[in-house]
Amino acid sequence: MLKLHEKLIGLVVGACVATSFASASGELEKVMKERGLSETDLLAAAKTYTPSGMHDKYVIFSSGGQSGHVIAYGVPSMRLLKYIAVFTPEPWQGYGFDDDSKKILRQGNIRGREINWGDTHHPALSEVDGKYNGKYLFINDKANPRIAVIDLHDFETKQIVVNPIFKSEHGGAFVTPNTEYILESTQYAAPFDNNYHPIEEYKESYRGGVTFWKFNMDSGKIEEKNSFSLEFPPYMQDLTDAGKGASYGWAFTNSFNTEMYTGGIEIGLPPFEAGMSRYDTDYLHVYNWKKLAKLAEDPKNVMIVNDHRIIPISVAVANDALFFIPEPKSPHGVDVSPDGKYIVVCGKL
Fold it and tell me: I need a surface site. Which of 2, 28, 225, 269 has the fewest CB within 10 A?
């Protein structure tokens, strides 16, 4: 008798499901017809649709450019999850108006000036063994050389540090495989000090570089006093990536304008863009950050500018910690393969 009862329930449920499916199928056909959709269109929609209350499989963090923020959105739904306020006050979420966020925003003051805008470019997730651990996000300010730390526990900015020697930057933020350091490299060469130097002294007084910001994963903070920089020639630097696996301990930074060209049509010379693209190649800066960290511990190996340690080119080269490899002219991007055996460089021109 019990088995018969179970069979009857099964038949009823099956009939209900069949009826429901038929009803839904009929409704789908109606929608398809009204909107001129194909089965392929419906399949594409089903692949991206994420019902309310369900989480996306992935979250993408995009730089917000001159908004000074980071944009977080879900994939596959493509829902905008949050504008993470970083370098710019945001009234709608109170960032830069309450006491706590005011303190963070004011960490980004440069030489006593309040800077309330930024140009974010390259976010980087914290890593362990060369893989994302999803704890922290780092973002740079290209226009006013700064790095910010975002805690992904609550998607809030926790720290802003100002580069003490750069006047602009592009190659940030990038991390070493265990987030020992956050790498930030210059874009336009400039004097490390804060004094005026005429452009005629370009080769003598202007320099590029890369800063190694020491990061403490436990505290979630950059340790400024334990950070240091490496001097580069007055080329213009581009992007950076850290080696892993076979290339662990090394890092790579593009460059352009190895011609060290200045001026242009305003002084009777070829246009600036032409003058800085004359050579067939520029140079990939290859440096061993593990060796450099050891060198930076000895005061004899560093010069101090603005209370910040800088390893001169001569010291790095003498200790086999810095090399230059020709690369396609005016590159934009250097990426290390997952196994660390290969580097892909994009020649922009």
Answer: 2
Given its phi and psi angles, is residue 259 left (phi above 0), alpha (psi -120 to 50 degrees) or beta?
alpha
Which of 106, 176, 167, 102 is closest to 141 using CA atoms? 167
**CATH at residue 272:** 2.130.10.10
State the amino acid at position 27 in one-letter form. E
Q: What is the pLDDT of residue 349?
A: 72
Any domain includes 127: yes
227-240 burial: b if 16+ Cβ within 10 Å, else e: bbbbbbbbbbbbbb
Whether 72 is in a domain gets the answer no
Mean pLDDT of the chain: 92
Question: Which pair of tokens denotes residue 175?
Answer: 């991390």
Ramachandran quadrant class, 111 (left: phi over 0; alpha: psi -120 to 50; beta: rest): left
Write out the two tokens for 71. Answer: 């944009």
Specify if 342 maps to a domain: yes
Residues of the domain holding 206: 85-347
Residue 25 phi, psi dihedral angles, 5° rounding: -65, -40
Write down the pLDDT at residue 19. 45
* Mean pLDDT computed over 132-144: 97
Establish if 318 belongs to a structural domain.
Answer: yes
Place of tokens 């049509």: 265
What does the block give as tokens for 65? 């450019």
Alpha-carbon separation of residue 310 from 104, 299, 317 (angstroms): 26, 10, 14
Q: How many domains does the chain have?
A: 1
Q: Which spans in the chain are helix H?
A: 2-35, 39-48, 99-106, 202-205, 272-275, 289-295, 313-318
Instruction: Give the pTM.
Output: 0.90
What's residue 24's pLDDT? 65
